[in-house]
Specification:
Radius of gyration: 20 Å
Order of helices and strands: HEEEEEEEEHHHHHEE
Strand content: 15-25%
Number of helices: 6
Structural class: alpha+beta
Domain FPG-type: 222-260
Number of domains: 2
Family: Belongs to the FPG family.
EC number: 4.2.99.18
Keywords: DNA damage, DNA repair, DNA-binding, Glycosidase, Hydrolase, Lyase, Metal-binding, Multifunctional enzyme, Zinc, Zinc-finger
CATH topology of the largest domain: Helicase, Ruva Protein, domain 3
Strand order of the largest sheet: 1-6-7-5
GO molecular function, one term: oxidized pyrimidine nucleobase lesion DNA N-glycosylase activity
């Protein structure tokens, strides 16, 4: 799934393209909304909430979308060729006099009353890039299940909203612990650093075209996607393993020297079967 900074950027693109303008094109290409026509309605704006996007229209309507693994919103100018994928992958088209927003491969697409938005995002924890950010509440949410592996707790959007698979791995590296360390075993000083560190990383990257966590010119990320290359700090080969309940692939990366705590194979590097392309959470 996308990270919170990616969703924030998508919301900004949609807002800048559509907000304050009346729709001249409204084309929903999913059976549930095939007869819906929003033509003539003014777009009030688009806001992100964690990994969710809420596009609001006059008349009290909201389009709720979620990118999941493969979804994307693309914005095009008048006469510009659409390049987000084949036509059969388009789920919705929203156009104004000078801009067209095209939603590709959106697995979540729901039109609801604006007053009902809490029904779809009310379960989320504090948003790392939102006005409701509360580091104390986020930490309390994480510590509420002390036996849970830290990596799984970070991905649970009910604890704090916006962290995906990339930031999960990078945060654990920066904290010096493995993603399999129980949350309750995280030293108190590092636990206190976690929420502000996560916020700092996402805020630093929300305006960048390429995500960067290292501060280094030639290397963008410390561990994510680097296995089996050497750790940037200690030169130990970075490891990779899936984390979670097995319902979806969650490739997780860590350095067995720089990070302490349990891991699937903490000993010498093991040869693993070739993997397909990785997708960020």
């Amino acid at each position: 799934m996308p990270e919170g900074d990616t969703v924030w950027q998508a919301a900004r693109r949609l807002h800048e393209a559509l907000a304050g303008k009346a729709l001249t094109v409204s084309d929903f290409r999913v059976p549930r909304y095939a007869t819906v026509d929003l033509t003539g309605r003014t777009v009030l704006g688009t806001v992100p909430r964690g990994k969710h996007l809420l596009t609001r229209f006059e008349g009290g309507l909201t389009l709720h979308t979620h990118l999941r693994m493969e979804g994307a919103w693309k914005v095009y100018g008048t006469g510009e060729r659409w390049r987000g994928g084949p036509a059969h992958q388009i789920r919705v088209v929203l156009g104004t006099a000078d801009r067209t927003a095209v939603g590709y491969r959106l697995q979540v697409l729901e039109l609801l009353r604006t007053r009902e938005e809490e029904r779809v995002v009310g379960h989320l924890g504090p948003d790392l890039l939102g006005p409701d950010w509360d580091p104390d509440r986020a930490l309390a949410n994480l510590l509420a299940d002390p036996a849970r592996p830290l990596g799984e707790a970070l991905l649970d959007q009910r604890n704090l909203a916006g962290i995906g698979n990339i930031y999960k791995s990078e945060l654990c590296f920066l904290l010096g612990v493995t993603p399999w360390l129980p949350v309750g075993a995280l030293p108190a000083d590092r636990a206190e650093k976690l929420p502000p560190l996560a916020k700092r990383l996402l805020e630093a990257n929300r305006d960048r075209p390429v995500r960067q966590t290292t501060g280094l010119h030639r290397h963008d990320l410390f561990v994510y996607g680097r296995a089996p290359r050497p750790c940037l700090r200690c030169r130990t080969p970075v490891r990779e393993a899936d984390q979670g309940d097995g319902s979806r692939a969650r490739p997780t990366y860590w350095c067995p020297t720089c990070q302490t705590g349990p891991a699937p194979f903490p000993g010498p590097p093991q040869r693993r079967p070739p993997r397909g392309p990785h997708h960020p959470g």
